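Q: Could you fold this chain for me?
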Amino acid sequence: MEEDVSDTTMAKGLQTTPYKTRLFTYGTLKKGGRLASLIQQSRYIGEYFTLHSAFQMRDYADSFPIVFFDYGQANGKSIKGDLYELDVRAMESINQMETNANYTPHIADVINEQGYITNALMFVNVNREAVPDAHLSHKNIIEEKGYQVWQQ
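A: Sure. Below is the predicted structure, expressed as C-alpha cells.
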C-alpha cells in the first residue's frame, strides 16, 4: 500500500511551483526585437553568451539571424544574446514557431559577464545545406572578442 504524501512540504512545493524553461535568444526574440512581444510576459534574466564557440551566425536576407553548428570547422564563435525564463505556454508557442521554421532546439551552456553558468534552450538550424548562400550575409553580424551578435 502506498503512503499518501500529498500533504508533505515537498509535495506542496511540487504542486505549486510552475514549470519554467530558460530560453537563449539571439535574434528577433531578443529584447527590443520585432518578435519580443511573444515573450514580453516572461522574466528577462540578462545578457549571456554561449559558453562554447561551436556556432556560426549569418544574416538571412537582412531580416533575421540564423545560427548553424560549426561542426569542427575551427571557425566557431560564441553567440551573444538574451536569456529569458518562460512558462510552459510561452515556450510551447516559441517551440512551434521555431521548429516550423526548420530550427532545432538545442541545450546550450551559457555564461554571463559575471561568470555565472547555466544551461538554456537555444534554436539552431542544423541543415546548413538547405539554406541558399545567396540569402546569407554578415551584414548585420558584429564580431568582437570571439563572439558574434546580431544587430537589428
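A (continued): The mean pLDDT is 86.
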